[in-house]
Amino acid sequence: MNDQSAQPPVDPTQSSSGVPQCYRHPGRETYIRCQRCDRPICPECMRDAAVGFQCPSCVSEGAKQTRSGLTPFGGRRSSNPQTTTIGLIAVNVAVWVAVVATGGASSWLAEKLMLTPVGRCISGEQGLWFPNATDSALCSQVPGATWHPGLSDGALWQVLTHGFTHVDIWHIALNALGLWILGPPIEQVLGRWRFLAVYLLSTLAAGATVFAFADEQSSTLGASGGVFGLMGALLLISWRVGGDMRGLLMLLALNAFITLTVPGISWQGHLGGFVGGALATAAIVLAPKGKKRSSWQWLGLGVLTLLVAVAFAARGLALA
Q1: Is 138 or 271 the better-scoring residue by pLDDT?
Q2: Which residues pair with 14 in a beta bridge?
Q3: CA-closest candidate to residue 13, choices 46, 44, 38
Q4: Those residues with Cβ within 8 angstroms of residue 308's Cβ, 6 or more apart along the chain or in another chain
Q5: Is the CB of residue 265 less than 8 Å from the CB of residue 275?
Q6: Which residue from 124, 142, 2, 267 is spatially nearest to 132, judged by alpha carbons?
Q7: Cα–Cα dist 209/228, whole Å
């Protein structure tokens, strides 16, 4: 019997030069791959997806799987994935208008809504702060001064309101832009309620990190904790679906550089928001598939909320 060497199988998606070629149009060289099946696709076959591009076959298959009205991770599909983001931006703008109308940088409303670990005695008319008046009784003895409670002595609403409060127009503009860019694609993948849960948990986690590590006399405000949480969410989603994360990692690196080098930016809020958003999204995208998937997701989000509450309580007891 004559020995014959076996010929290697021919890969229809590989050209003779070694460059990948579109699996639907042989001969068209391309370096773009479908984020779902990983097969090479040419520009004609590229279909926009929440993360990257998909081929027509995967888009068709995805449509069949989601005819029940559910997202890939079990949430109810939003008819308009921009609605929640628009609502969040509207709340931020409304609070900003109220802050500007009540005095801007010296607004009593901003003082009540921003996260301050301990209370402060402030003279609204003169813009003076009296650090030696450490409680409401001492503050009442200062002519014209008003006691503004902090989170540790009763202003519990600050755990959330700090994330919707702005003073400077550039601050709210940047955060609104970040929300507008990141919010809709994440809601499209997770569904409205899961997206909202991720955003609010990011804001709470940012507040807990500020409360734990920022200066006791500092004040922190702004939606950037929630925006950084959405960056963490998008990173987890991209990793889960095998998307290209290079652009997002570069954006994170740039924002981390700005956070650490520009004075007046709360690194605690940005770090806490990012970690909170990533963990909340992990509870959603890593939940096991099946009939109890939704239960596992909300259980994970509930446990994370409990941990954030414990962090707030522990720091509050330490400052009491």
Answers
A1: 271
A2: 20
A3: 38
A4: 201, 204, 205, 208, 276
A5: no
A6: 142
A7: 13
Interatomic CA distance for residues 26 and 280, integer angstroms: 42
Measured over all CA atoms, what is the biggest interatomic distance in the chain, rounded to whole angstroms?
Answer: 110
Q: Quick: pLDDT tens for 232-265.
A: 999 999 998 888 888 889 999 999 999 999 998 9
Instruction: Tell me the whole-structure pTM to 2 decimals.
Output: 0.78
Contact 91, 208 (CB under 8 A): no
pLDDT tens figures, 164-220: 999 999 999 999 999 999 999 999 999 999 999 999 999 999 999 999 999 888 899
**Which residue type does 200 have?**
L
Backbone angles phi, psi at 142, to 5 degrees: -95, 120
Q: How many CB atoms lie within 10 A of CB 123?
A: 15
Q: Does residue 77 or residue 52 have the better pLDDT?
A: 77
> Are 30 and 21 in contact, with CB atoms under 8 Å apart?
yes
Q: Could you tell me if 141 and 54 are in contact, meaning their C-beta atoms sit under 8 angstroms apart?
A: no
Cα dihedral sign for 17, 23, 26, 31? negative
Kindly state the DSSP code that residue 155 receives in the 8-state scheme.
-
pLDDT at position 4: 44
What ranges make up the beta strands (E) of the chain? 47-48, 53-54, 120-123, 128-129, 145-148
40 phi, psi to nearest 5 deg: -65, 140
Residue 205, SS3? helix
Tokens of residue 112, six digits: 């009540």
